[in-house]
TrEMBL record:
<protein>
    <submittedName>
        <fullName>Solute carrier family 2, facilitated glucose transporter member 11</fullName>
    </submittedName>
</protein>
<dbReference type="GO" id="GO:0055056">
    <property type="term" value="F:D-glucose transmembrane transporter activity"/>
</dbReference>
<feature type="transmembrane region" description="Helical">
    <location>
        <begin position="205"/>
        <end position="226"/>
    </location>
</feature>
<feature type="domain" description="Major facilitator superfamily (MFS) profile">
    <location>
        <begin position="34"/>
        <end position="477"/>
    </location>
</feature>
<keyword id="KW-1133">Transmembrane helix</keyword>
<dbReference type="GO" id="GO:0046323">
    <property type="term" value="P:D-glucose import"/>
</dbReference>
<feature type="transmembrane region" description="Helical">
    <location>
        <begin position="115"/>
        <end position="136"/>
    </location>
</feature>
<dbReference type="InterPro" id="IPR020846">
    <property type="entry name" value="MFS_dom"/>
</dbReference>
<comment type="similarity">
    <text>Belongs to the major facilitator superfamily. Sugar transporter (TC 2.A.1.1) family.</text>
</comment>
<dbReference type="InterPro" id="IPR036259">
    <property type="entry name" value="MFS_trans_sf"/>
</dbReference>
<keyword id="KW-0762">Sugar transport</keyword>
<dbReference type="GO" id="GO:0070837">
    <property type="term" value="P:dehydroascorbic acid transport"/>
</dbReference>
<keyword id="KW-0812">Transmembrane</keyword>
<dbReference type="Pfam" id="PF00083">
    <property type="entry name" value="Sugar_tr"/>
</dbReference>
<feature type="transmembrane region" description="Helical">
    <location>
        <begin position="453"/>
        <end position="473"/>
    </location>
</feature>
<feature type="transmembrane region" description="Helical">
    <location>
        <begin position="82"/>
        <end position="103"/>
    </location>
</feature>
<feature type="transmembrane region" description="Helical">
    <location>
        <begin position="384"/>
        <end position="411"/>
    </location>
</feature>
Amino acid sequence: MPKDYVNEYEPLLIKGVKDPTSSKFPSKLLLLAMFATCIGGTFQCGYNISVINAPTKYVQDFINVTWTERYQSHISENGLTLLWSTIVSIFTLGGFTGVLIGSTLSVKLGRRGTLLTNNSFSLMAALLMGLSSTAGSFELLIIGRLLCGINAGVALCVEPMFLGEIAPTALRGAMGMGTSIFLTVGIFSGQVMGLKEILGREEDWALLLSTTCIPAFLQLLFLPWFPESPRYLLIDKGDEEGCKKALIQLHGVADSVGALQDIQREKDNLVGFKAKKPWELFADHSVRWQLLTVMLLNAAQQLNGVNAMYFYTHYVFQQSGIPADKIPYATIGTGACECITALTCGLLVERLGRKVLISGGYILMSVCCVLFTLTLALQDISPVFPYLSVVCVFAFVLSFGLGPGGVTNILTTELFTQTSRPAAFMIAGSINWLSFFFIGLVFPFIMIGLQHYSFLVFFVVCSSVAVYIILAVPETKNKSFVEIQHEFQSSRKKKGVSTDEAETLIISTSL
């Protein structure tokens, strides 16, 4: 291989001059940018996941009354269940749709432009759901929830991409944790807003569902003050001047030079390449292991049992002797736990690294699955075991928030370079939403078939993923996107690819 090639691309194969200990916490400006990005994104998603739970009975009564007024007959129990489950579950179908369009929009409109445009879905949803009671139309609820799902799908696809691209390399993990933190805060906020002391009364259920417009207005108010992703401006649009201005605004004059050089190196490495389509990513052997990894991690994020644990929460709290009218307050405790661990993960992710947190989280979840199974099976033996089950619920949620809940999206951002990242998020997001739908569909049958032993299925999932992460996923802390790609290629070389082939693979991406 020519020596000038080696000299030219040496920065891509080894770390540049970095001081990873220089800053471990984002500046005030970056924190404000994170807030403006996440408030209308994953906060909105988490809010819409949980806010629908409180008015369940009121919405079902509304459907019953509306049906009777229309058709002069009572709706059947199966019909009512079908309509209610449609209102709840169509959110996941909307999320899947949002992922499919989010990747394309992020290339055409930019990351920030897509997030701003995405608020139109939320505003339309708030209007339709707010008018549903007055109009006497449960169809408006179905359409509104579908639009909420589309908003969530686009946000979960584009938001972590945007945060990862505006953050300095040493703070990329901390910034990426904003996705998880705001998701959990959104879930917690939806639980709180559904309390009877706030908007959980029967006459307020339509107003409660329409409050989804508030985060949208906040994002439309704050996000325009921040620039588009510098990487998008330089690599996708070729706007060097716009990239420089964006970097100065986000990182300051002193740090913008090094960041610009890093982006320029990545651009040089991708000369002649356009943003890839998902099917092109599947055909690209150089990113096969990265793609397999993010597909596995995104599937596991839904199939690891955390949603099933939420399904069990009411039952466990009831068995523990907590009065029925107090269970909603106890359930809020699980949301608060996840918020705390998401914040903790945000503080630790740049110190301990991604691999330690996500593998450790899955190991702890595996242990909790076994203990939860034992406490459920032994509930009738001693009055102590119901309380131990409650402890297991909180421990399981804490373990999820500590690693898998926050690090998964960070890794999806970090394992791909600019031209592959939108397609990777489309694939990862599709797997995530389909897995979400699958677990909601299949878990009731697992529970009927295995009863107290249902969580042994999730033990297999969590322990298998933990083993895979430990053996196959490299640490990505304080590494550029190109360096991370090189690590995967180096691991392939150790498994039988010759040195020349590995070098050719890296160099060829720039030709």
